[in-house]
């Protein structure tokens, strides 16, 4: 550990490689975001919204489960090995979608996409936190999420353009094969961060050892701060699971073209990705709580705004605001988790948090499908917005600031 240093500047090349790698991780999700709900209706004749959104449910649950185990496995075997396995699994996703003859093959493809995302995205964010100083965690996570959601946005727009120029399948998914090859190649070059974890653990003043069961309980409900952060993450991705499945259907129902839908669907994660460049860094300066509370409320308000307006330009504004609200909380929640957790079990705690957070994709798609089938797409969007509003209220009342410098001042 003699030559190992903690800090983004001190590990700049490896940090940049991880940023670029996560752009391609996010691109795997963006590939599907515009066109897969439409493929369900047009190619496979799915009438039930619940059935059409089953691919998001399979993705959400598989990613959530893999997130949980990925953290513990990475703590034991190293981040880089897990990252490479994630990319290997990812190759199955575009191949299954290209050759799918029935909808169940699309559902299976998204189980593999969940595994790919759970392994690769988890590792890139954990490795950046490993490299960063405590006062750089928000910036590190923000940059990671910026890269990933920029990938989501770029590929959502590209896939919509390719689909409108050629067809829904197979042309957009040829790009997916190229993405996997590039991502795997970049991951081979990335250096593992095990030595950085050991160095941080040796300097830690917490010196706590927890079992896997204790880590799960603390992150889920026993530790007040960790449990509030986890519920906020779950609420955020529940909203996103709904948006992923229902936004293309909602905007198609009001008469927008596929290219217009592609732009709207891309602007939301583009805004989400871009503003994380600033929100993560800002949370290192002003604290985590303000951004978490305000971001949860802004997400709810933006969803209701989408329902209340009726012009394309205003929908663009609402999509941008939804992205800003999500950007305020996404890196901040993960930075806050890393403030609390000891380096020796930080990845495991992050895995539990990401398990609950990403199960929100599945719950969001499930609730959105049921509510749309029972009521309509507008009611589904409006009712789902209540959850981030509630999470913001709970955080405002119960969450204690976790940024180390501010926490010490308030202690």
From TrEMBL:
InterPro entries in UniProt: MFS, MFS_dom, MFS_trans_sf, MFS_Transporters, Sugar_transporter_CS
Molecular function GO labels: transmembrane transporter activity
Location(s), subcellular: Cell membrane
Transmembrane segments: 12-31, 51-70, 82-115, 146-166, 173-190, 242-270, 291-309, 315-333, 377-399
Domain (Major facilitator superfamily (MFS) profile) ranges: 14-403
Keyword field: Cell membrane, Membrane, Transmembrane, Transmembrane helix, Transport
Coiled coil: none
Record protein name field: MFS transporter
CDD domains, per the entry: MFS_MdtG_SLC18_like
UniProt xrefs under Pfam families: MFS_1
UniProt membrane topology term: Multi-pass membrane protein
Signal sequence annotation: none
GO CC, one annotated term: plasma membrane
Cited Gene3D superfamilies: MFS general substrate transporter like domains (1.20.1250.20)
